[in-house]
Every structure is written in C-alpha cells, then in structure tokens.
Amino acid sequence: MTIYTGRGDEGRTDLRDMTRVSKASHRIEAYGAVDELNALVGTVRPTGHDDVDAQLERVQNHLHVVQADLANPDPEEDDPVVRADHVETVEGWIDAHDEELPPLQSFILPTGSEGGAGLHHARTVCRRAERRAVALAAEEPINAQVIEYLNRLSDGLFTLARVVNHRDGVPEDEPTYG
Predict the structure, then answer these.
(1) 3-state SS string for the chain
(2) Shortest CA distance to 149 belongs to which of 82, 101, 95?
(3) How far apart (Å, rounded) are the C-alpha atoms in residues 143 and 159?
(4) Residue range 6-23: average pLDDT?
(5) pLDDT by residue (tens digit) across 85-141?
(6) What are the residue boundaries of the structural domains of the chain, listed by start?
(7) To pair with 52 at 20 to 30 A between CA atoms, which of 4, 43, 92, 175?
(8) What's the whole-number average pLDDT of the chain?
(9) How many degrees, rounded to 5, is the angle at CA 77 between CA 74 and CA 142?
C-alpha cells in the first residue's frame, strides 16, 4: 500500500464517514491541531521521569481518540469517542502532581529544562486545539467531552511542565512586566 492517494490534491479530504470536506474546514482544523499536539508531545518523550513518560504515552493515545472523535460527525456505538473517564484520568494526574509542587504564587514564564519547556509549548498548542474545537462546536454539534478534555489536558501539561522542571532542579521564573 502506498502512502499517497492523490485524493487530497484539490484541497478536500475524507472524514471517517467518507464525507468529503475542505481541508480548511473547522473540523479538519480542529483535529489537525490535535495531531500537531500529539506530535509535539512525542518530541518531549522521554523526559527522564518514568511516571511522566507513562502519562505522556497515555495522553498520546487519548489524543488519537480525540482525533477520531472529531473526524467522525456521526459516531456509532463502537467508534472511539472521548469519555468522562479520559478527563478524570488527567484530573487525577494533576491532583497527584500538585502535592509534589510548591504552591503557585503568580504567573510563571514558560521555560525550564528541555522537557519542561517542551511541555509548556505543548500546553500552548493544546489551547489552540481547544479553540479550534470550540470554533467547530459553534458551527456543528460535537462531543462536548472533547472540549472538556482539551481544557483539562492543557492544565495537565502545565502541571507536568512544572513537575519536570521541579525534579530537574530548574527554578520557576516570574514575569517582571518591565
């Protein structure tokens, strides 16, 4: 099987249900941003912290579910969809890692060790994916759990960035606004 088909050469692509849409549609923009996020998370692994790496691997698998959900305007019972337990998993990670971290007193600069800075970058791409999903939801119905998951994941990636920097001994810098 060859990787190219030529079917997208005129700016259209297939959704999961084989509906042809513009590659510039809100739906394609949404799951394309999630694809970019997934690839970026892949560049951060391994961080050197086994628990964080295992969580990031799960995130990458969750993001495939998010993409499948967004690519399918009319999912059937057995199709992959984002569920409440995906959100709850990320919330559990956040809560567990928060116990390890000093309380946040102010905004921090998105920097740090290679892994920490990469996770801050991933958080910003996650926020963009969330905005794209919100734009799609304003246009047509989608699974609301997708937006909730992306919102929570951005918080999770922020927390993971802080954890990696903390474990790597990198202090958090506050903005000076000057």
Answers:
(1) CCCCCCCCCCCEEECCCCCEEECCCHHHHHHHHHHHHHHHHHHHCCCCCHHHHHHHHHHHHHHHHHHHHHCCCCCCCCCCCCCHHHHHHHHHHHHHHHCCCCCCCCCCCCCCCHHHHHHHHHHHHHHHHHHHHHHHHHHCCCCHHHHHHHHHHHHHHHHHHHHHHHHCCCCCCCCCCC
(2) 82
(3) 25
(4) 86
(5) 999 999 999 999 999 999 999 999 999 999 999 999 999 999 999 999 999 999 999
(6) 20-101+111-167
(7) 175
(8) 95
(9) 35
125 in Cβ contact with 40 (< 8 Å): yes
Backbone φ and ψ for 12, nearest 5 degrees, come out as -125, 155
Question: What span, in angstroms and rounded, lies between the C-alpha atoms of 77 and 67?
Answer: 17
20-101+111-167: CATH topology is Hypothetical Protein Ta1238; Chain: A; (1.20.1200)
